[in-house]
Amino acid sequence: MKRYGMVIGLRPEKIAEYKQLHAAVWPGVLDTLSRNGVHNFTIFLKEPENLLFGTFEYDGDDYSVAAEKIAADPVTQEWWTLTEPCQAPLATRKEGEWWAYLEEVFHLD
Can 39 be counted among the known catalytic residues? Predict the structure, then answer.
């Protein structure tokens, strides 16, 4: 099991919409994540900075392959058409990233 952490900005005028969307995440999106080894997914909001912090666990062998499968899912793609306009990617993210992935420096089980 590998843990991931990631961060992205949230547009201030989209906070209520983003919260409403995540109060009822589409079952097809959740199923795609689960089928591809993503579990224990949580998103936190830090105001007033409007930063989203996401964390999840991956139980497969190659997250890059799983991420490609998730991204290819038509339901997930449709979901992203609603969520991405709410988000404001960090200028310091790596090339090809939407959410900026974080280095794990400590964990207590």
Answer: no
